[in-house]
Amino acid sequence: MLTLTLFSVITRCLGFLYKIYITKIMSTTDLGIYNLTTSIYMVLITIVGSSIPLTISKITAKNITLHTENETKYSVTTSMIFMTFVSLLISLITILLRPLFIKLISNNIGYELILYLLPSVIFTAIYSQIRGYLWGLENYFAVSIVEFVEQILRIALCLLFVHLNIFTSNIISIGLALSIACGLSTLLGIYLYYKNHGNFAYKKGYLKPIIDSALPLTGVRIFSSLLQPIISIILPLSLVKIGYSQNMALSELGIIMGMSLPLLSIPNTIIGALCMILIPRISNASDYTKINVQIRYYIKFTLTCIFIFLPVFITLGIPICEYIFDNTIAGHYLKLSSWIILPMGLAQISSSILNALNQEIKSFIYYIISSIILILFVLFATPRIGIIAMSYGLGISNSILFILNAMKIKKITKIKLHLTSNIIAFLLILLPTLLLDNFVFNIFNKLTTNIIAIIVTAIISIMTYTTLIFVFNILDRHGIKIYLKQFTKKYSTTK
Predict the structure, then answer these.
(1) Buried b (16+ CB within 10 A) or exposed e, 267-296
(2) Burial class, 68, CB count within 10 angstroms (exposed 0-12 / middle 13-18 / buried 19+)
(3) What is the pLDDT along the chain (495 residues), one digit of tens a residue?
(4) DSSP string covering 34-58, please?
(5) Sequence-ordered list of residues with C-beta below 8 angstroms from that of 477, at least 6 positions apart, any chain
(6) Do residue 252 and residue 140 come from a single domain?
(7) For residues 401 and 379, what is the distance between their CA atoms, to the nearest angstrom?
(8) Distance between CA 2 and CA 488 in Å, rounded?
(9) What is the domain extent for residue 159?
(10) Cα–Cα distance, 355 to 209 (Å, whole number)
């Protein structure tokens, strides 16, 4: 897990720096168009590659347990053929429905971006099966390497295209860079697939079990990806109704979705790495006693990640956004929205646990409920409180999603999460950390530059909170050592 987390953090950090670069080469209005367009693109990516890796990973892990590893190649090949066909069909439909897409985006450049991104949809359909296979083998190093290489190529190519001024719009440079990077990283994935004893062979009868397993989760992911463009359309329209111009509304959308929310998603990077490990491990657990031990650790680890970042966002939200984006409004949104990382993180980890317990349909239903609540909140709250309704709606809907997930997990496993006492313990050490953060930042901001004050305060905040966690024994040090040793041993054998 340590290797996976490290690579995930580095990859996401590069991705975050890339997003900062994007904000520098586009206006806030263009950023709004970009976010609206990519939200539609993510629907296409979700269809071809969201749930398949989970399904293939579970099949791979199950075959290893049953000593029927030879069966895995049939599942991988069948799934790859089917999803490649689906990706080609989606690409054709996107081209044929050009007028509809232009109407949705209200911009020709946005549609051109989707066209340049279509090859990445096909490459994603191919690589998803390989990712699932490597995931099921628990070879997280290989998965992380592919994603890391893709991120590096994506950034390098975009910088090259923008520097050479090849296209009339930088938005197109971003799209083409991603498609080429996806193609090259897919080739690397195929190489690693063969290196890890993978093979391709077709045999009838393997498609239906894959579809049956993947369909509920695909429904969740598609609904999730559809949610973003729906919100991206509703928010500007709601703002226009209360007096904003179209450009001002898109600018607000660009600020909150292109600046504030990406910062708030940083803790989900580490939690996402945990989720990747979680599904095959819980799926392979022999009894609920072992499952419950793992679930309690996953929840506590998730809370640790969230509360380490929370004081940083609260204290440094405004100066961070002023320095990175040169935008004070984004900083205010970040500070006001910082609390939502708690329900978002808990919803993410609990949904993965539920999927690992083979409760994909329930997970789908719960997600639909929470999404409807988000849409309704944004519809009715935006005219009253503005664009911040997006953040608050995410916090409320994810809180409800976590509650529903937790109730179902408890019913299945009879587990006692002790969540309230854990959150109270984390909150108690949050208060002194916040006081120290404010004191440190005010001192260093007067004596040094803004960026040095931000870095020093963030480091002291993380170190202080981590120290207090261990001093008060909120996170068991011995348990972490044992856990890391297990993953280090697994990593050394898979590498």
Answers:
(1) bbbbbbbbbbbbbbbbbbbeeeeebbebbb
(2) exposed
(3) 555 556 666 777 788 788 888 878 887 777 777 877 887 888 888 888 767 787 888 888 888 888 888 888 999 999 999 999 999 999 999 899 888 888 777 678 888 888 999 999 999 999 999 988 998 887 878 888 898 999 999 999 999 998 888 887 888 888 899 999 999 999 999 999 999 988 898 888 888 888 877 776 677 677 767 777 788 778 888 888 888 887 788 788 888 887 888 888 888 877 776 666 665 566 555 566 777 777 887 788 888 889 989 999 999 999 999 988 888 999 999 999 999 999 999 998 888 888 778 787 788 789 889 989 999 999 899 988 888 998 999 999 999 999 999 999 888 888 777 788 888 888 988 989 999 999 999 999 988 988 999 999 999 999 998 888 888 877 655 555 544 554 444 444 444
(4) HHHHHHHHHHHHHHHHSSHHHHHHH
(5) 470
(6) no
(7) 19
(8) 7
(9) 1-205
(10) 16
- Token pair of 486, please? 């297990």
Residues 1, 66 within the same domain:
yes
Q: Does 185 share its domain with 220?
A: no
Residues 495 and 383 in one domain: yes
Same domain, 172 and 292: no
Q: For 69, which DSSP code?
A: G
Together in a domain, 219 and 149: no
Residue 242, burial from CB neighbour count under 10 angstroms (0-12, 13-18, 19+): exposed
Which of the listed residues 136, 170, 205 is the one where a domain comes to its end?
205
Total domains in the chain come to: 2
The structure tokens listed for 424 are 């109270």
Same domain, yes or no: 118 and 264: no
Alpha carbon of 65 to those of 61, 68, 221, 275, 429: distances in Å?
6, 8, 28, 20, 43
Which residues 6+ apart lie within 8 Å of 215 measured at CB?
51
Specify whether 426 is located in the same domain as 366.
yes
- The answer to whether 425 touches 299, Cβ cutoff 8 Å, is no
> Where a domain ends, among 171, 205, 239?
205
